[in-house]
Structures are given as structure tokens and as C-alpha cells.
TrEMBL record:
GO molecular function per UniProt: ATP binding
Recorded superkingdom: Bacteria
Domain Mg chelatase-related protein C-terminal: 409-504
Name recorded for this polypeptide: Magnesium chelatase
A Pfam family assignment: Mg_chelatase
Amino acid sequence: MSVTVRSAQVTGLDARLISVEVDISPGLHLFSIVGLADKEVQESRERIAAAIKNIGALAPHKKSQRVIVNLAPADIKKEGPAFDLAIALGYLLASNQIRFDPAGKVFLGELGLDGALRPVPGVLASAMATKDAGMTEIIVPAGNGHEAALVAGIAVYEARTITEVCDHLAGRKEITATARPDISSFTTPDYPIDFKDIHGQVRAKRALEIAAAGGHHVLLEGPPGAGKTILASALPSILPPLAEDEMFEVTKIYSIASMLAQDARPFVAHRPFRNPHHTSSHTAVIGGGTYPRPGEATLAHRGVLFMDEFPEFDRRVIESLRQPLEARTVTIARTAGTATFPAHFMLVASQNPCPCGNFGNPVRDCVCAPGAVTKYKKKISGPIMDRIDLYVETPQIAYEKLAGGEDEEPSASVRARVTAARDIQRRRLTGTGLTTNAEMGLREIKAHIRIRESLKPMLKLAHERYQLSARAYHRLLKTARTIADLAGSTDIEAPHLAEALQYRPKQEL
């Protein structure tokens, strides 16, 4: 007898429904899984057999029984333990040990030897695929239910054991459908660092406000202890909250990466802040592997990627940022396939002025060897610097600022200005699929950024003095446009352009 039930396979950041075909026929004993199944799927034979035996059913180990499981379509690589439940139910149905109609149902879950169901990653993507395919139900392990229920329009049932699933399918004891979580109840968390707690560094805070308003990339340079890390850590507190569609994007990424909380709120409601160590590998930061997986660049999607001690990262890591900084995606090609991951993040990089950190310090002497400063700065190549919009120096904070008892401007006030500026950009870019100035390409720049004739001599002088590349020139215009938006100005004025020029790197002087 042959039956078909449905499961799902996550590939990249999307999922596809998989037909689990189970055929039982007489003959020499065989329990085989075919359909481009990897080792984890092949090992499921033993888990499934033990689980079926331990719930009191007849396991697929009869000497005169051939059990063939086909995972279709056969050209998609099948990996992970999520097929366990579907294969087990397919066998029980094909061997007449349970009766149910598999139409419209999708099954996900890893089986324990005792029949317990364990949560699996990527359930949100699988639930989306279930809905898109016109299915009506998805049955998942306990702990995955609230995540799957985020997708409206399908019934979600979560079970602790395969016995509960069988009882539900047979109508003996139905499982209550998991209610869809109220997304509106997810609020932005209290940020550990607020701008009001950071004394001094007025220019750096202004630069971060501009970066937040336009989605620009920033490089902070200053001596150790000047506050670069705390400034970067405070940046999420001035970013506007995620829109609902952005929440789903980020949540799907974290679900596939097995980084969601398995509780009643398995949802990323705030902008990510990723801070990889400078010893992180290329694969950890950009993503990769035999079967491509997202890295820190993708985990920072719609949020902030903070790279402290930027020049200390491996050169391959730094140079591989070229594509995501420009295209806001990461494309990884492997023998097993090619995957494109979203990587729309704000880069905040920090570095010391030299290896010892005291170059240019009026109080402490630099002890670096001759040429060491130049070598240190050359670790960041010109093409990478070209992709950074704002270069900011963070000098040592004076005692009077540190000892001052008054709070600075709070993040909430800055966030209000940032949100207002982004609303202006969103309205301006309606119909383009873009939301911030930093995303604009040549066509959008030509359509939405106009420079008065009176400002063109100033731009020409800046182009000649700074030796701006075409990319740097366009980034300068986008930064000036953001400063004008923060000021509520329809046109770019001379002060806006002059301030944008202040944030160009020293290397261009």
C-alpha cells in the first residue's frame, strides 16, 4: 500500500512543501529513504522505528516487509530531522495502524526514541509555505506552535508526542488549535543604553542621528575608552521600530538560525544589534557552509552590525562586506547550490587611530613603530572606505563632561526626529520599493536630489579637494539629503552640504 503525507524543507530563507511517499510491500526486509536525503534524514529510520515501537505500534522491522520512503521532489536536498513525524505517520497510515485523511495537512517534528516530539528550526517559513500552497493545517511540536501561528489563515496544532498526534487525527482526543499571537502587544524593549547617559561626544551622537535617519554606514575612530562601543550600542535606541512586514522578515531569519525563544512570544519585535568578535571567520560573518546558512550580516538585517576593532578583522572578512554594503544582499555560491540572503543593515565600525591607540593624542605619546600607523590604516581598503558615509572622530572625553551631573538629550527625543525624517523619505520614495536615502540608486538620486546652481561651485571644490570617486560623490549627496530631511527642508542648503562634507574620511584630504 502506498500513501502520501506532506512535510516541508527550508532552503535558504524559504521553505518548500515536500511529499513524503511511503510504500509498503511484501519481500525481504528493507527500510529505505530515497529522494536526495542527507545523513540526518537517513538516521531517522532508527529514531522512527524505536518511537513507533515504544508507543505500542508495530515498527517497520518485519522480516517480510519492504518499506520505501520517497521524499519528493527528488532534486531538492533534504536535511534535518523535521521529516521524522511525517515519515512515521506515513508508515502508520500505509500499514493500516491509523486512519486519517492527509489532505491539506503538513507535519513537522523531530522524534525522540520514546515518541516525544522535539522543536525544529524554520517553522515560520514552513508555515508560510503551507499557506501559500493552499494547505489548511500544520501540526508541529510543542514549542513551535506560537511561531507557526503567526501566519494567519491556517490552523496550527502543537503536540508533545506522536501519540497525541495520532489521537488527534483519529478523532479520539482533538488538540486545541493554537491562537495567533497579538503582534500589537509586542513592544520595543527597554534599551540598556540611552543617549542621555552618554556625556560628551556631541559630534558623534549627531553623526549617529544622521546615520539612523538615512540608514547610512558609520566609522568611529578614537583612542581606547573614548566611548565608541557605548555609542554604537546606543544606536538601536534611536532607530524607529520595525514595521510589521520587517518583523516577519527578521523573525523568519532567526527562526531558520534556531535563535527564537520557544515561548508565547517567539517574535523579533525590535531591530537586531549584532556584535561579532574580530576573530570571527568569514563564514560566521558573511554566511556560508556546504549548505549555505545566514551569517552575522544577515542576522543584522533591518538592524545594526557593529564591528569593533574593525582593522583587526581578517582581511577576507572586511573585503567580503563590499557586496552587502552596496547591494544589501549576500549571495553565496556552493557546489550544493546558490543562496541569496538579505543583508540590509547599518554598519557601525570602530577603530583606534593606530595599534597602540594614542596617535594624535595630546596627552599620551604614540609608541608605534615608524610606518605602523600607515600599515594599520591600510587594513581598511579604499573600496570599503568608499562605501562608508560618515567618518567620525571620537576624542577623549574631558573630565568636566564626565563629572557633569545633568543628563543629555534622551534617545526618545532623537528617535522622534529620526522617525519624522524617515517618514519624509518613505513618502518621497513611494513606488520605488525603497524606504531610506541610503538605499537610493542613480535613478532615484537623479529624480529626488537636486542641487541649486549656487551650490555647484562648492560641490566642485569638494570633489577636487577630496578627490571623490563617483560612489563617494553620490553618497555625499545622499548624506546631505538626510541632513536636510532632519531639518525639515525641502531643498539641500549650503549648511546641509557643508555638514555632510565634514564626515568624509581624512584620507580624502
